[in-house]
Amino acid sequence: MRARSEEESRHRLPALIRYGHRSWLVPVAVLALVVGVDAATPPSFVSVSWLVMVPVVAAALCGPTATALFALVSVAAFPALDSVWGKSQGLEDFLLVAAGALLSVPLSVFRARAAVYVRHLQGTAETTRQVVLRPVPPGWGGVDSAARYLAADVEARVGGDFYDVLATPFGARVILGDVQGKGLPAVSTAAALVGCFREVAFHEGDLATVASWMEERAHRQNVLAERLGDREERFATAVVVWFPLDAPGEIEVVNFGHDSPYVLGPAGMRQLPTGDGAPIGLAQLSGGLPQVQRLRLDVDETLLVVTDGVTEARDRVGTFFPLRTHLERLAAVPGAAAPGLLVDEVAAAVVRHTGGRLTDDTALLAVRQIAGAPDTSW
Q: What pLDDT is recorded for position 346?
C-alpha cells in the first residue's frame, strides 16, 4: 500500500518534473518528424527549415549540454537534407536555422539557472516542513503512529496543517490541527502552536492546562502578527489526545472544533463523540476552553485524525470524498487498521478521488497503543 500511495503522490507532479530525465526524446521526435516530412513530400514542398524547431524545443526541455548538441545537429542536418532530397532552399532559410540554434543555448542556460533557484526554494520549504512536521521514531511514546502530509501546493510542500507525537512522563500525547488561512502566516501560526505543544504537553500533567497554554500561545501569536502588519486574526482547529500510562484502555481528548477522530479495530469502525469546543484562539469569543473528555480506546484499536483536506476533498463533479464509507470498508480488511497501512490507504484514496488536484492541504495521523512496557526513552 505504501508503494501505491507514493506512486499516487508522484502523479500530482507536473509532467515536466516527472519525466524530466526523458525530455531529450521530444527534440529527437521533432527531428525525426522533420526528416520524415522532408522525405515523404515532393520537391515542391520544402520543409527542411523546420529544423529550427529542434534546438528551440530542446532549450525548453533539456539542459544546456543537450541543447548545444541538438543545435549542432540541426545546423549540420540542414545542408545534408537539402542535398539528399534535392530540395534547394535559400541562404535565408539556413540563417534562420542557425539563428535558432545560437539562441537556444543561452535560453537553455537561463532556464537551467531558474530551475536551480527553484530547487533551492524547494529545499528551504522542505527544511521548514521538517521543523513543523518533524519525523517521529517508531514506537515513540509507547504508541505505534504514522502520519502523512499532502500539500495543495506541490512545490511548496508545507502549509497550515500540523501534527506531532510526543513522548512524555505521563504517556504519549498527540496533536493534529489545521490553521485557518494559507501561506506564510498560516505556517508561522502552525509552527508556534506545535512548538508550544511540544514544551507544555511534556511538562504539564493536566490536559486542560495544556489546552489553556495553547490558547494563550495563539493569542500572543496574533498580537505579534498584528504588530507586523497582518490584520487577519488566525485560529486553528485541532485535536489533542493523551494516552495515560495508568489507563491503557482509555484516552483523554480535547477537541478544538475539529472533526472527531475515527476508531478502527476488530469491532469495526466508529467515530468519537463530537467536541463542542471553539478553535484555538477563539476561546474568549465562545466563553471558555473545550472540556477534556475521557473515552474508551482498546489497545487493539487505531485512532485516525484527519484535516478537512480529507473530508472536503472533491472529485471532478464536486462529490466529497466518502471517508466514513471508505473507513468502514477498510475496517473489514484484516490488518488494514495498522497505522502505517491506514494512512497510506486513505491518502492514496484521496489522491485518486481528486485526480491529484488537491485544493487544500491534507494531513492524516493514525495512532495505536503498543501493548507492553511504556516507552521511557524521552
A: 95
